[in-house]
Amino acid sequence: MEIKPIAHFRSPFSSKFGIPKQAGLVEELEGQIVFDPEFRNPDALRGIEGFDYLWLIWEFSANKHKANSPVVRPPVLGGNEKVGVFATRSPFRPNHIGLSSVRIDRIEWETNRGPVIHVKGADLMDGTPIYDIKPYVVYADCHPDARSGFVDERKWDRLEVLVSDEVKDKLNKQGLTDAKISVLKEVLAQDPRPHYQKNPDKVYGMPYEGLDIHFRVSHQTLEVL
User: Which of 126, 162, 196, 206 registers the highest number of CB atoms within 10 A of its CB?
Assistant: First the structure.
């Protein structure tokens, strides 16, 4: 079976560092689905405006090395415990295929890039190839009483995020609106650090909206520098 992208994703994140670990964790995080020229026919989207959510099937395109282990170390388990790769959502898989549910914000039907779907809550890097789009259907896809394995047993500890007035002013002057700063704080609250990094003196950097955001973490508090 040969597959090719139908679209590519546009995101505030130009690298995989800092991207939310799951779709929906940062509900207001904006992104765009931009179709490749061959698929810019509005007829292919006819009726999609009647749905609130979409499933995206995409590629972990930033993972270049081949997965060679049947087990992985999920961050939610602290990066210390191993579980089977097919019992996780790890990006290190035999086939680098991702699956995300995103919320439709609006659709631009006529642009110089063809129809563009604006979505919120995605966990995709900028430029990610998308191989298929399917509507989210509540009666078939929603299982509110389902068990979630080890995820049920481990609470994900959010960080407190501090942005001083001085830093906020600098971000505003660089074009980051208060709304986008709020989204950035939600992203950082998920703790984007590698699970093995706990040095309170280490300064981390991640790209967001074309800026290089520096921060450090100490005692569950993240300070944007």
Answer: 206
